[in-house]
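TICKET: design request
STATUS: open
ATTACHED STRUCTURE:
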């Protein structure tokens, strides 16, 4: 039996070196015990496994490294052993890395995904308070991560708040930035962080932006923030004020160009904050099997928005909407209709890929009402920021999300629908419907109709502007 002691619970390099040496020594997974503590990185056991000769030919599939880096940070005590078992199997069969039906790979995928969610939560929900000591200002935040993510997240906070002096205190360790150096300190307690409520700028911008248009659903917004984080979030204390302001504005409020102008400068930061928050979304069970949230894409001042159904297999892997076969058909049709995709905002009613595993394949499954309803929160936030005068729903799921009721394409197509936020909605078919039409003549006819719908939307937009 070999025992490997790693320096820290997130010690990827230590695990990698030990695992490589063990694998070269053909040590079976069941013969290794992994420990991660606070001591220096070293190895004990029957043999000094780190002394095994380095093998320049030791290779692993490229996708394994980021997966292992993420999974290592999971709190699951079995993570090191599971990763080592996977490493041994990948040495035999590198193509296993693509077999997402494999139970071991699936379990490790889940570990990594939970870590990525936690990383996003820390970025989205951590709040700094200002602390003045002997005339010096430092920003201090308290955060309780679920996994060992503080070190891996440190670079993000350094980049984002490079000019501030700040400390992040957690029950596992603290990190401190003095404007030039990052230092690590011991675990902290909640009482070590100051109470108070100064708002960190990006978040002030974000919340001000989403409240500005006045139609925001405050209850829904609070529901979206996990309760655990409320006590750290000063903007929850700000809600009554924001509601009062919003109601006052709502009295005569129609979304005018001026209003849009007013928040326009802030919209990109607000949109980025929103996308970041959506990355950690767990509002419905689809986040579990999916790879990631696929958020909308396009300029925040786009005047035309397209809403699809949900990401497909390609989109789920790439994290971008409409890039697979349906997306390529959509691009072609847009170009023929004289619309530049670079100028429009493209998003989906449901932001996680819903599928059924069939062997190695993931077969698209239609999202249901509860999933569309759970995800409506995000599209409403996107619409609040972008405020497109015209939105085109591609297919019945998108139409249901946009119009808030079930409609048929034949019944809803070809006319304007007034949307609750003052914009205009149009409905057409989904490009993947066109891809599924077996008869070539019919497929061509339907495609031409689709292009005409897009062209009509572009022309209508020009009329609205005039
Ligand atoms: N289908 C959709 O509805 N959306 C995508 O992003 C891709 C395919």
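STATUS: resolved
RESOLUTION: sequence designed for all positions
ATTACHED SEQUENCE:
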């Amino acid at each position: 039996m070999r025992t490997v002691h790693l320096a820290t619970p997130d010690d990827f390099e230590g695990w990698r070196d030990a695992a490589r040496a063990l694998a070269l020594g053909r040590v079976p997974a069941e013969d290794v015990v992994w420990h991660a503590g606070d001591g220096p990185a070293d190895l004990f056991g029957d043999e000094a496994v780190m002394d095994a000769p380095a093998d320049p030919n030791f290779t692993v599939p490229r996708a394994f490294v980021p997966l292992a880096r993420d999974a290592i940070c999971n709190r699951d005590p079995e993570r090191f052993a599971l990763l080592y078992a996977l490493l041994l199997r990948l040495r035999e069969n590198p193509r296993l890395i693509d077999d997402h039906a494999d139970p071991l790979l699936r379990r490790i995928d889940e570990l990594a995904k939970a870590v990525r969610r936690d990383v996003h939560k820390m970025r989205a929900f951590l709040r700094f308070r200002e602390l003045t000591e002997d005339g010096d200002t430092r920003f201090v935040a308290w955060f309780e991560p679920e996994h060992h993510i503080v070190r891996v997240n440190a670079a993000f906070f350094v980049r984002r708040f490079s000019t501030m002096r700040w400390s992040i205190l957690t029950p596992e360790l603290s990190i401190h930035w003095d404007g030039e150096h990052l230092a690590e300190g011991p675990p902290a307690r909640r009482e070590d962080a100051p109470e108070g409520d100064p708002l960190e700028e990006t978040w002030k911008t974000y919340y001000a932006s989403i409240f500005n248009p006045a139609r925001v659903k405050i209850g829904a917004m609070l529901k979206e923030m996990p309760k655990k984080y409320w006590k750290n979030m000063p903007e929850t204390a700000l809600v009554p004020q924001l509601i009062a302001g919003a109601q006052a504005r709502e009295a005569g409020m129609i979304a005018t160009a001026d209003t849009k102008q007013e928040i326009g400068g802030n919209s990109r930061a607000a949109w980025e904050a929103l996308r970041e928050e959506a990355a950690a979304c767990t509002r419905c069970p689809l986040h579990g099997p999916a790879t990631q949230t696929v958020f909308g894409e396009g300029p925040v001042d786009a005047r035309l928005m397209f809403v699809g159904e949900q990401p497909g297999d390609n989109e789920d892997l790439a994290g971008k909407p409409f890039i697979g076969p349906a997306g390529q058909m959509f691009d072609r049709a847009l170009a023929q209709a004289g619309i530049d995709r670079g100028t429009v905002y493209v998003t989906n009613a449901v932001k996680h890929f819903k599928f059924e595993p069939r062997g190695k394949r993931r077969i698209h499954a239609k999202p249901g009402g509860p999933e569309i309803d759970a995800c409506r929160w995000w599209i409403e936030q996107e619409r609040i920021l972008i405020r497109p005068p015209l939105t085109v729903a591609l297919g019945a799921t998108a139409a249901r999300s946009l119009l808030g009721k079930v409609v048929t394409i034949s019944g809803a197509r070809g006319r304007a629908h007034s949307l609750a936020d003052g914009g205009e909605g149009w409905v057409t078919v989904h490009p993947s419907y066109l891809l599924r039409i077996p008869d070539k003549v019919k497929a061509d006819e339907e495609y031409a109709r689709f292009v005409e719908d897009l062209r009509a939307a572009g022309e209508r937009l020009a009329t609205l502007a005039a």
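CLOSING REMARK: The first strand starts at residue 2 and ends at 6. The two ends are 78 Å apart (CA to CA).
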